[in-house]
Amino acid sequence: MKSKTILFLSVSTLSVIIFGLFFLAIRLLDNNSISALFVVFVALLIITFSFKVLKRFVGDLKDGFPIDDERSKKIRMYAASYSYFISIYIWLALLAFHKYLDRDDILIAGLLGMAISFFAFWEILSKRKGLE
Q1: Closest of 27, 6, 30 to residue 108, by C-alpha
Q2: Rounded to an integer, what distance in angstroms lies between the CA atom of residue 6 and that of residue 20?
Q3: Structure pTM?
Q4: DSSP code of 83?
Q5: 122: closest CA among 85, 81, 91, 87?
Q6: Helical ranges in the chain per DSSP H
Q7: What is residue 32's predicted lDDT score, i.e. its pLDDT?
Q8: How far apart are CA 57 and CA 93, in angstroms?
Q9: Angstrom distance (rounded) from CA 83 to CA 75
Q10: How many CB atoms lie within 10 A of CB 25?
Q11: What SS3 class is residue 69?
Q12: Which residue among 8, 18, 108, 116 is least packed, with the fewest CB closer than 10 Å?
């Protein structure tokens, strides 16, 4: 797939996710304000991280570099493996508190925890020097 197509699809996917999170926060504002604040915080975290990543992608596209090279594929592979093991512990912790949370809250928190752990490991591994 072309790099510009990948960039367009990722921007449109991120915008749909962010608008969905803000609509969820508006819906949660009537019932529980703490949950709404948490969802807004996660949406803002996604926005800041995505601007950082998209800025790097656009800079690489202007310079003529492809989005996927061997190092970025390796970083994604390692980040996915690390976040997989962390997500197991996230799900175990959430299932330990299943009496106190709704099923929807457990599912949303688990998926957000998986995504945040992947992006955190991706950021850490992209700064590491000896990964080539």
Answers
A1: 27
A2: 21
A3: 0.62
A4: H
A5: 81
A6: 3-31, 33-63, 70-96, 103-127
A7: 67
A8: 35
A9: 12
A10: 19
A11: coil
A12: 8
